[in-house]
Amino acid sequence: MARVNWTVAPERPDSPVALALWRAYYTEVSDRWYRLHEGRSTDPDELEREIAAGTGAELAPPRGVLLVARYAGEPAGTAGVRLTDPATAELKRVFLRGELRGRGGARILVTAAEDRARALGARRMVLDTRHDLVEARALYTRLGYVETEPHNDEPYAEHWFSKPLTPVPAPGTGD
């Protein structure tokens, strides 16, 4: 997979592209949960309520950022970062459209999110995920995240991860 097919750039959480990707993300994870636990898809009214409630405002500057990945110019996925305190950033909404998985985009998105977290001053990244999102848990482990004690009380969180964000040396410093 050639990295040149991927680009990642900040996007307003309320932009049409970000909203379409949020809808795809929420639909997938919600349907996955309901199919596993209740044998059905998400109720359409509930889906619309939850999508509308997830404004992404916490992923806007100055304390956050939403990144959109594009593959060959087409919107492909997202990763959000928000500061929870001056030294800690939380990784949110990591998502790639299903047909683009397996092409290196998730690693590129998470790495870009880590870089943005460093730029915001964070020295540590945390995240939470569900037990049934085994692919996400495997990705985070491959990228150096380790499972930790809970850092929040999110209702669907079942696994919590953390990773130190080692500062990147400035070019030409020799460090």
UniProtKB/TrEMBL annotation:
The keyword Transferase applies. The keyword DNA repair does not apply. Residues 166-175 have a biased composition (Pro residues). Pfam families: Acetyltransf_1 (PF00583). Residues 156-175 are annotated as: Disordered. SUPFAM superfamilies: Acyl-CoA N-acyltransferases (Nat). Residues 20-166 form the N-acetyltransferase domain. Keywords: Acyltransferase, Transferase. This is GNAT family N-acetyltransferase. It comes from Streptomyces gibsoniae.
